[in-house]
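Predict structure. Chain length: 300.
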Amino acid sequence: MERVDVDLATTAPHPALRPFVRYYSQRRIVPGDDLQEPVTARLGGLLEFHFASLYRIPIVGTDHFESCAPMLVVGPITYRRLQLTADGTVESLTVMFQPFGIYELFGIPTRLLTEHAVEAHSLLGRSISQLYDALGEARSFSSRVRLLDQFLLRRLSSSHQMRVSHWSQSLTFVAQDRGAHTVRELAASLNTSPRQLERRSLEIAGMSPQTMARVARFVHALRLKRASSNKRVTWTEIAHASGYYDQMHLIRDFRLMGGATPTALTHQLQSHHGASLLLRPSAKNSDLSEPFDNQRVSRQ
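Prediction complete.
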């Protein structure tokens, strides 16, 4: 198997940004051969900057490719349709948002981004290109983190109108429920109508309440497996703890949202640069309140 050398550094954002941003991550990957990384279902979007080789993005099951750009805004994902490939050194910097962070900070309806990656300048304007230039000139990860914090704090102070504080809290409850109740039951508990809940969920989270709960259940199962120190914990136990009716329902979702069986997908994610961050449980209130240590990983 090819050897892949990875430098990975990850940290939490400024405390004021943590309701909107989960973490910042910087990766430098030197593949010994073509690198392939799975892209699986997840809540929330990301902003990614590339400073070296660009990924090639084949669409799974087809002969088509999606374009990559030095700056990308990537929306939520509900099923595995892409994988990332690279045949040269990759250096990237990622802002991983909370499920509703892009909408709250930038006012962009998340439904327009679901399953898509959009060139950042066309979406966010000149300020993001200026940030990209400054990030490229920065010499260290800590310097880049300061620049990201400054940029996003300006967005927070200039454009955040608490426009969705009530709805973000309500939709967080929907995601945490992970399908235990029907949309009608959830709407009643939130003192709204099912139609209104559906509309706001599409606008803010980029997916319906049912899909959001299903993706949340899938990600929760992955994180439980990652967090388990007991190697004997079975997928049946994880399925029940995550809210699945049985293991077969879990397997079905893993094939749709992850493109592989549970065991195979866990191995794929753990074997690739930074992809295992998906498996790391978040701290209380979905924030990453403690910085990650820098890591260097070699895969033989």
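Summary: The CA atoms of residues 186 and 192 lie 9 Å apart.
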